[in-house]
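User: Structure tokens for this complex, please. No commentary.
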Amino acid sequence: MHQVLKALMTMLPDCEDMLVENIVRPFHLSDDDYKKIMDLMLESFNKGLGKESNETARVKMFPTYVRAVPDGTEEGDFLALDLGGTNFRVLLINLKGQEVTMESKIYLIPQHIMLGTGIQLFDHIAECIFKFMKENCLLEKNLPLGFTFSFPCKQKGLNKAFLSTWTKGFKCEGVEGNDIVKLLHEAIERRGDMHVECLAVINDTVGALMSCAHSDRNCALGLILGTGTNACYIEELPCVELWDEDMEDPNFVLINTEWGAFGDDGALDFIKTDYDKHVDKHSINTGRQIYEKMISGMYMGEIVRLVLEKLRRHGLLFQGKGSEELSTRGRFYTKYVSEIESDVDDGFKNTKQVFDELCIDHFTEEDCRIAQYVCSLVSTRAAYLASAGIACLLNKMNRPEVTVGVDGSLYRFHPHFHDLMMEKIQQLLNPGLKFKLMLSHDGSGKGAALVAAVANRLNAEKKLKAQKKQTDNCANSEECCQASAQSQR
Amino acid sequence: MNKNEVQVAMKVPENLAAPFECSSSLAMPEVPKGGMLVRVCYAGACYCEGQMRKTGNKPRLPGFEVAGVIHDVCNTIPNSNFIPGAKVILFPDEELANSGYMEYIRIQNVENVVQIPQNMPLEVAAMLPGGALLSYSALLKAKPHVEKLQDVKSCVNVLVVGAGGLGLWAVRLAQDFIGQNTNIRLFVADNSIDKLLTAQDHGCYDIIHWNEEDHEQYIIERTLDACRGGVDVVIDFVSSPRTMSRSLKVLNREGLILVGGNSLSDVSINLNALAAKQQSIVGIPKGTISQLQELVTGVSEGKINPPCFSIHPVEDANQVFEDLAQCKITGRAVLSFGTDNTAMMNNSTMLNNTQMMNNSTQMMNNSTRMTNANSNSLHYTDN
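Assistant:
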């Protein structure tokens, strides 16, 4: 059968191209498709914000309790923690106006702790904090700490975050449904050899926004395009129907959209390809994070691999002969996509190296071209889908000028992602609105410190306000004055 | 005395699933003229060897690091030199390269036989002729360069790529070289977190996770972040296109890269960049017999602290190589031969030299981490 096909193809040279097109066609989406996606996303966002509808909404729109962006007066030393994967970082950050200096250390998390108990995990984290503080001679100090915890959390306060569910390979028991700040403080208590107080928990999107806002006051959106994808933005309090705190100034709060879950209710079925379905079926969280699975780094390589394998089975790639590696799920790393698309001439240097690492012995220049084509279709669709989400939020916020703080390996290392997004967002944005995409440097570290600094500042202001209120009320009563004099001693 | 002994033949496999076979044969080799017969007790198992056999290449390490006892000596050799029953290791030479794992080895050239002192266990000695010797040779080659840089720089960064047996030996041997010098920092990079944590236990300055799934630029950033001031010397036992490219991107001017020579692919290098930055790439020389002698002395005197290792019966060789490839075994793996060694096997645990000298809590840490590994091959005295 394969021989007949080949014979036919030599007779009709255009046929082969057409067959490739047939296999990759589902990745070509029209402008109308992206407009429809924007409309559906807006519906999802509003559903998440609505009081009654939030329960069944898939896109949860969690309030982050961060109500201030940095105002440039942040000063002092802060500790930050960054946990989002196998790397755990402890940072010491010094803020002085626009100047930020950082010392940091990475501590690896071994497999048995990722799969062990919550107590083991937080004991390990506390131990790493101790080691870091000792090395940097901080044990005598009492530094405020910000924690970037990049897992889906329901926050009940700036430093009260309840883990909804573990993702990214973690599975520590006794943590889901619990307040991770409490768990951290308990572990620190157990050690008894350091003074650390966690003032704020944020996730990586908030970090990206805060970090960018530190140098660009127009930043109102934080975006992560890495192993996963997520976005946060500044929303006005009246729109957040589930808001349960005060409605005073500042009249806004950062919303963590957790937009990866968009499409879990079937909203994206009209563009879902067989490859997306396959990836979803074989993932740890089937049926969930549908939008994320079409965009982020954790899945992009696998989608490309499935397309290449289909082409190979049809004899259109590598003359039908692949390799064990190419047939192995998860073996086509997303970084290969960036590397293949970085080849600019017919030398295909990177592409050939990837084929070599995948133990593909025989390939032609045509194979290289096809591989590059497939990669570009998958990455372009990802970039355009993310653009639709950003444009939707920008239109919703309706601010004349917005900077989007972006972080993540996909955005940073893919040769075309930035340009593709600039082009697409511009196309989908309402007329009269302007935007900028800015790489957020080390949002998880700097961002956490900034939030801790802001929390520190707000705490101090609150204390001052409360004290002032007390002295005002006691203007006439002598006992009150005595009481306040006592408390000041 | 003809015994039924086990001959393990190494074949270049057609079937990837079974690179090694155990077969028994009846013939006891004869003592060569002017030579001797050595009964093998332990042989080191090296990760890269399993890989190379799979692809049909010949590994640079000849295939085993052998420790055993002298079984018989040709009567032309003066009696006092070699006595049957003495503990010996064999210097890896071309002569041994193609003989495969055998229980009895014919040695033509007795100069390749190095005696080891009675106080050194054979299983430790088995690791010396191959991995330890190569690491030692690499460090000796790097030494003059490091010393030259020490005079002009406040801090010299040395990066070891690969946290397997070779890397761990490099960490331990470097400790002897570095001594109290706090301005020489040793870093270890590897794809496996478990292996890196083992390396950290062995006392390197810091570990860097070279996760194969991460983008190259990210890996380089992380490396430069950990090695402040860039890297001055790289000892790359892996030497793949990727590790070489990363090494070149983090290497300082006048930096030196030492390559191991077990690479599975060709690597292309931009010579102009090399010249512009006055960097050098040097192959790690094969160690000499006198260097091997130095190692034996160093270990027996306690100056050199061998890395942790585990002992497995030779019948499990296939599984051992599989486990090494999947990083289920961290530290060295040593294969043991013959039933006479069961007494030693029953007493064996995850050992390191300090445990032999005195009890060490480090062994406990190693034992608990090994619970993930193939528990058939490891024996614990306590857990």
